[in-house]
Amino acid sequence: MWNSTNKKIIQTTFEPTFYPYLGEVDAVNSGGYLHYIRLVNSILNEKKPSNVYLIDIESLVFRNERANWGDARMYNLTKQPFSMETIPILSNHICNAASGMLGMSKKVIVVDLDNTLWGGIIGDDGFNNIVVGPETPEGEAFQNFQRYLKQLTEKGIVLCICSKNKEEIAKEAFSKNKNMILELNDITIFKANYLDKATNIKNISKRLNLGLDSIIFVDDSKFECEQVKKNLPEVLTLNLPDDPSEFIKLVDDTSAFYFNNITKEDISRIASYKKLSKIDDDFKSSKSIDEFLKSIKSKVILEKTNVNNSERASQLLSKTNQFKFNSNTFLAKELIKKNSFCIFYEDKYQNYGNIGVVVYKVIKKDYILIENWVLSCRVFSRRLEHFITQYLIKIAKKNNCKKILFKFEKTKKNLYLQEFLNQLKIGLSKKSQTCKLDINYLNQDKLKNYIKLK
User: Fold this and answer.
1) Angle at 278 between CA 275 and CA 282, to 5 degrees
2) What is the distance between the alpha carbons of residues 425 and 337, in angstroms, rounded to a whole number?
């Protein structure tokens, strides 16, 4: 069935049986129903292609123990194996999986400090007297929450701090308290001041070049959470319960993060965001934008989409929003068959890996049609889009084409792309959702850049 379509698929695993065939040993004996179901689910997971996302039903049963998952009467009536009260839980996971496939999953988690990463108020109690560590159940719960957050960063989720504290005092916990799991190096942006948290979160969003709808905010204060909800409704705001042992469940139950295919670029994303301060300092010290761009020594590798880079290319088409021409996405195996290439970028700060992809076709030697083109926000303001446009012009000329057409959909998120198109005076056709670039009339000076093809 999976091979019969190139579309993305969300599928549930097989659910546990109502009645174990072998009683207590049903799951561990080779003749048991549950043992067989787990074996089949394991094979499904190992064999699934990249366009399939599996929702683990058995995991949902365990994580929602208060819900009466199985309903034998409902199954007898309608062949629906789960109870009505579980439908919202399952629906939520299906919606979050779909959001992840469409590039709408969360990328940043912003957390408070006092009574969130530890118990107590560090400004009053000092770094040695905050509650964190295995000596008490509460302290161990805070440690476990820190460990959970650290694991998120290892999967490419950006961790930021937003706390009403003095920064130097707040940082003492990370550098001096031996029971802390999180280190300062795990945190991309550290905001400890007395500004309102909505303002700090907006600044974090701007600094990362990511939309507010990419952020989760976690705080123990109901007042702070209500303020952020009111001022930044796009942010997913979670008010923590009094019991720190419930923190992980509260965040994890949102299923707001998407980890179907973790690439090496996901892992390196954290490092590139951490370089932002150094980049900002260098830019401010430069006499001009051109001087700055010359100094960073940008290099690009353009590589035809292949079995080694196609998964990342497909992921970029799904997840990228700010420089994205349209909503068209392609599976890895589709990209390999198409005219498409990946964009690898590096400068003096970092090797960013695969940060873009272009999919195009030549139409009757008249024009080339860009089916889609995306660039990661991590490399904005390097004039990389200018360099790629020059390369597309070369492709057009090689195929005796005078025009480049782009399938374009104007959205609230691709403002950076819209600005670029305006700079080149590329307008949207009134008759169709396309942008047209006539290469004979383009002012080449507008594509000036300092990027070398490696």
Assistant:
1) 135
2) 32
In this structure, the answer to whether residues 52 and 172 fall within a common structural domain is: no
Q: pLDDT tens digits, residue range 313-341?
A: 999 998 888 999 999 989 898 999 999 99
What range defines the domain where residue 136 resides?
108-252
Q: What is the CATH number for 153?
A: 3.40.50.1000
397 close to 444: Cβ distance less than 8 angstroms:
no
Query: Where does residue 199 rank: exposed (0-12), middle (13-18), buried (19+ CB within 10 A)?
Result: middle
pTM exceeding the 0.85 threshold for the entire prediction? no
The pair phi, psi for residue 45, each rounded to 5°, is -65, -40
Give 85's strand partners: none
Which tens digit of pLDDT belongs to each residue from 205-234?
Answer: 999 988 999 999 999 999 999 999 999 999
Strand order in the sheet with 189-193: 189-193, 158-164, 108-111, 215-219, 236-239
Encode pLDDT of 341-378 as tens digits. Answer: 999 999 999 999 999 999 999 987 789 999 999 999 98
